[in-house]
Structure formats: C-alpha cells, structure tokens
Amino acid sequence: MACFVCKGQLVDKLTNFLADLGDCIVVIKNVPSQVCIQCGEISYNNETARKLEEIINSIRHSPTEIAVINYNTRKVA
Ligand SMILES: [Zn+2]
Asked: CATH no. for residue 15?
C-alpha cells in the first residue's frame, strides 16, 4: 500500500489520534496506523477507523473537557 498523498511508502506505527468535538478534546493513544515515511500522512485501516469512531461516540456526551484514552485498553487515563 502507498501513501494516497505522495505515493510514498507506508510503515506500521502506533500514533496518537486527536479529535476536537467542540466541547471536548479526545486523545486516543497507541492507535495502530500506517504512516508515510515521506510526508508523514497518517492513515488507518477500516477496523481501526471504526473503533476510533466507536470510542469517540462513547465519550461524546461525557462532561469531561479532555479525555485521554489508550486504544488498547479503551480506559480513560
Ligand atoms: Zn506521503
């Protein structure tokens, strides 16, 4: 698989995912992702993207302003 931005090579890496929901900032750590060694573009496979969405939806209505979650344990730190 090649980077969809620059066609560079993608390597498997754990990265931190950040989502700004307006009222709440969500940081999900150690997300399995593919990172382009050329431009740094990060992409996720379908399963990971779905799980990220699931995690975000589960805390969307929580009263916290900043949520830090570990992807593997899904526990709020
Ligand atoms: Zn790239």
From this structure: 3.10.20
Please give the distance, rounded to the nearest whole angstrom, from the Cα atom of residue 33 to the centre of ligand 1. Answer: 13
Q: Ligand 1 centre from 47 Cα, in Å?
A: 21
pTM over 0.90: no
8 Å CB contact between 10 and 3? yes
Q: pLDDT-based confidence at 76, cuts 50/70/90?
A: low
Burial zone of 61 (CB within 10 Å; 0-12 exposed, 13-18 middle, 19+ buried): exposed
Q: How many domains, the chain? A: 1
User: For 26-41, what is each residue's pLDDT tens digit?
Assistant: 999 999 999 999 999 9
Domain presence at residue 25: yes
CA of 52 to the centre of ligand 1 (A): 22
